[in-house]
Amino acid sequence: MEGVSEAHLVGMMAGLAMSGKIPYMNTIASFITRRPFEQILLDAGLHEARIRLVGSGGGVVYAPLGPTHLAMDDIAILRTIPGMTIVAPSDAEEMKRLMPQTVDWPGPLYIRLAKGGDAVVSRPEKEFKIGKAIDLKNGKDALLVSTGITTQIALKAAEMLAADGADAGVLHFHTLKPFDAEALVRAAKGVRSVVAVEEHTIVGGLGSATAEVLAEAAWDRSARFKRIGFPDVFPHTYGSQADLMARYGITAEGVVAAVREHLGIKDAGRK
């Protein structure tokens, strides 16, 4: 308990890690990533220190408190650090499967938490392993790429698209770094639409990671791709998490609209 002193705390954690400890720190996601960035980079990243940063309220959970508390860029910030691992569980049950693996995992690790109480959409029979995406649903027409709570959005969108006769797969990236490029390329093979949906800015997050992999892969260039997330703006709107996400189209309906455009579906039930 070090109070509002995140930079100091991360430095102290790095020292503890270099002494053989595995320290965990939990605070609001916007404060655990922006304020102590230099310490995370140099004290932990440079020395491959095994610190565990737990960011509560990732994305726009704290929307009622305004722009200063929005963690829309946390993934992008930490992706730039060599050796940093970034994990965003989809629900509480997936978090339970993650935590034992964090003890022996090498180097610094960031865990992005939601608000709690979110719908459980993960499946225990699907193996959870840091660094490996989970194929929740296969699809031949479209691929929906998700992370964190947007996995529930992707699954709902896949159900809605089925009513149009469109078969959409869902690939859940609980781990943003290291990114499972092999799973993405395999799942995207043969589909005509790939849509990445995230509760994060479209700059530097899941959508960027997806685009980077597909751009360098032997992927069908005739297929369409879209990132759904927050645009490159400061949202100056107060409200709930759901309000802000809906304002920017980070919804099942937004995903469905993108896929329909890609596949040429004009009316429900018709291709």
* Helix-strand topology string: HEHHEHEHEEEHEEHEHEHH
Please state the average pLDDT score.
95
Please indicate the percent range of residues in DSSP E strands (runs of 2 or more).
15-25%
What is the CA-atom radius of gyration, in angstroms? 18 Å
The total count of strands amounts to 10
| End-to-end CA span | 58 Å
Task: Please count the helical segments.
Answer: 10
- Assembly type: single chain
Strand order of the largest sheet: 1-2-4-3-8
Structural class based on helices, strands and sheet pairing: alpha/beta
Summarize the amount of helix as a percent range. Answer: 25-40%
Shape call: globular
Poorly predicted segments: none
Largest sheet: 5 strands, mixed
Structure commentary:
The chain contains 10 helices and 10 strands. The strands form 2 sheets. The protein has a 5-stranded mixed sheet with strand order 1-2-4-3-8. It has a 5-stranded mixed sheet with strand order 5-7-6-9-10, with helices on both faces. α8 links the parallel β9 and β10. By secondary structure, the protein is α/β, with parallel strands linked by helices. Helices cover 35% and strands 18% of the residues. α1 runs parallel beside α3. The termini are far apart.
